[in-house]
Amino acid sequence: MTYVIAQPCVDIKDRACVIECPVDCIYEGARTLYINPSECVDCHACEPVCPVEAVFHEDDLPPHWEHYLTVATEYFDEVNRPAQDRQVPLADHPLIDRLPPQSRLKADISVFAVRKEEAADADRWFPS
Ligand code: SF4
Ligand code: SF4
Questions:
Q1: pLDDT in tens, 82-92
Q2: What domains appear along the chain, each with residue ranges and CATH number?
Q3: Closest Cα to atom 8, ligand 1: which residue?
Q4: Which ligand approaches the C-alpha of residue 110 most closely?
Q5: Which pTM was predicted?
Q6: Candidate of 4, 32, 46 to mutate for ligand 1, largest count of ligand atoms within 8 Å of Cβ
Q7: How far apart are CA 13 and CA 6, in angstroms?
């Protein structure tokens, strides 16, 4: 079992989840972060700190973001993300690459943790 980072992280990347992860299994891409499914120990520490509610247990992914588990798996298997240099932003999965710029509204709201639900909704229906 693993946790998964979905679309709300794209173009936010404040790295709050990275600080919480006890096993350093969250890696930085150019526009989003990725949890390595084979390293995640399913501890839940990252989920509550995300200001835009981008982190989900794989069983709780909303239907419109279910493909983000595949994105994470492919990012480490096929894109061949190396296990070292976690903090070095590398290229993204092609699906993330193709996303249009995400809402500035989301980025602006996300700095206020008390408004995280509003930030998470800012581009919920943006094409993915
Ligand atoms: S659930 Fe735990 S181990 Fe998995 S990415 Fe989040 S903090 Fe790291
Ligand atoms: S805390 Fe959320 S928005 Fe911030 S880097 Fe992690 S997944 Fe992305």
A1: 666 666 677 89
A2: 3-121 (3.30.70.20)
A3: 21
A4: 2
A5: 0.83
A6: 46
A7: 11
